[in-house]
User: Fold these one by one.
Assistant:
Number 1:
Amino acid sequence: MRIDKFLSETGYATRTESKKIAVNGVAIKDTSVHIDPDKDIITFCGEVINYTQFVYIMMNKPDGVISSTDDGNCTTVIELLPERLQKIGLFPCGRLDKNTLGLLILTNNGPLAHNLLSPTKHVEKTYHFRCLNKLSDSDVELLCKGVDIGEKSSTRPAVVNLSSENEGDITVVEGKYHQIKRMFEAIDNKITYLERISFGGINLDITLERGSWRYLTDEETAILENH
Ligand code: URA
């Protein structure tokens, strides 16, 4: 692999002018040289650059931040990452509304994200919610059975576990636009708090503060890859 590609994929691309790159301890000036990322040791200012083709990040999305990659006015989730990670093509694997909190997976692995988001895959997403009005047994039954949110067909069966009359967890296997909010509107209720706590078998790390991130563990990455 050419070292300029390596530098771009690891987020160091624009820093080459400083000529602080070394391959196996030898400073290089020509960024067209070829390296083997599995064997050669590449350093920037003496710090080893670790190479992985794909990066997987868990973020605890805070309120007021949008989960698309670019917006002129609002802060994006990408902007919450360090500068180097903003340059390696990461994007959110599924979106959360501006006022929805919690688990967001970011990756630069397009095919994997495409697979996880495919409507035929039925990947489970669990949200903690609070709603305006008390939920009756028949409301819960409706949410579980499927409700009409104005799409071609009703929502697929969901699982609801209440912790009080207007609070609980809901697990769905779809990812339609504003899905949970629309499901509650369909039963004449209104979501007042929404936080994703699980996606595709990966739980939100409760030690992650709002707005913070960490790399997925190998175990978590394997869960995503095995969907
Ligand atoms: N459902 C919603 O209504 N909003 C989200 O952000 C996620 C699921």
Number 2:
Amino acid sequence: MNKVVVIHGPNLNMLGTREPDIYGRETLDDINTTLHEKASDHGWELHCVQSNHEGDIVDAIQAACLDDTSAIIINPAAYTHTSVAILDALNAFEGKVIEVHLSNVHKRESFRHHSYVSLRADGVIAGLGSQGYHAALAAVLAVS
Ligand code: DQA
């Protein structure tokens, strides 16, 4: 069975109550549940990980390198703008990588305009809210 891993970075466990004007009112569970349903409708296994810790995210990427995962959908949140460690881990992953941001980071503070992860990502989606995750999953399902 094809596998896709969805990785959510720091503070995304607070979705629903965290700055809802920017990030929306859906919870992470709402988003993950819909992604699970869509993936299983297509006969895919989908695994979701959320962590507030950079090393845990590196560990999740390394696990995906070792278990035949076909694609990673990742919202690295604040680590997008700082983490060479997450970029290095993704560089070792051979499948498809889609980077997702709920907000349009390019409309926001200048420190959010640079993404280390974009140096590896095959596709980047920003500003579509939770629909960005669904678009990313649709792209993974379509091309794999
Ligand atoms: C985010 C944008 C990041 O700049 C921010 O640190 C986040 C969420 C987004 O989904 O829009 O935590 O990745």
